[in-house]
Amino acid sequence: MLRAFLRTAAARVRSRSPRPAPDDDVLLDAPDDRLAPALVAAARGEHGPAAGLLAGTRENAEWDHRDRYTTRLAAFARSRPEWLDTWRATAPDDPDALLVSARLAVHRHWDSPARAELLRQLLPAVVAAAGAAGPVDPVPWRTALDAARGARAPHAEFERLWEQAVRRSPHHYGSHVVALEYLADTSPHAHGECLDFAERAAQDAPEDALVRALPLRAAFTCLRTDAAGTGPRTGGASAVGAHRARLHAAADRATALSAAHPAADPWAAELRNLLVYVLVRLDRHRDAAEQLRLTGPYVTSFPWDRDTDDPDPLGRFLQVRADVRARLKTGAH
Hints:
By secondary structure, the chain is mostly helical. The chain contains 18 helices and 4 strands.
């Protein structure tokens, strides 16, 4: 892990060059400068830096950062739980330790064949923990929304949890993503409704809010289900064809949001990786090449881990990047 973080720092220096990152310099799910020390300490069994990081996000109402850091810490705790166990034993009522523990519990059940039943049993405890987290933090409610989606909760129950989340933060990206995925799972007219929901959320959000990228996430849902042959049909044509102008508009909106972040910024890496996926599927290879330049060495598992049955998101990214470069050499747009 320490070697990976050192490579991350070196890659940041190299990324000041306009040249694309070589394959051996590409980094998968590299942490940013705030998360990296917490993960290094957790690898040593120390929870203090993680506790300080999450406490800072809570005190400063950095809800999108808090959500992403919680997810990464919970994922780390799946294989290395000692630091979290110590944290819980030392401070059993710490809201940040409880948040990571709740996210970890949901993650552990997610890949089980009995996911719905297991999360149905877990949901009351996750909701109770969210209710105890206070009147301003939406992230525990995002975790409850995840559990409800996995448990296949009925609409009324999901909407009750959704109201709690948006009451605390009307523009929290993570809560909107879960609601979008729930809508995609349960609506018979998912493409249009997902785009409607995402466009309304983005329209009402501040210019720099991450939720302005929600239409891009909806576009990904449309493109992925259409490619798999599972999406709805409209008049014999794919729903993607019916909504193509809206998909291009989502990509344009996300491109503007990407431009507001520095090149080779780990925080913007997921946005840019997702934008590359959507632009390639829309045959906008020149625009995709620009996003590949901006993302630099930073590859994120999402969306590449959902693009193929091959569990190799890094390999899939490199394949797509090579294809984009090849198409530009032949004059494709």
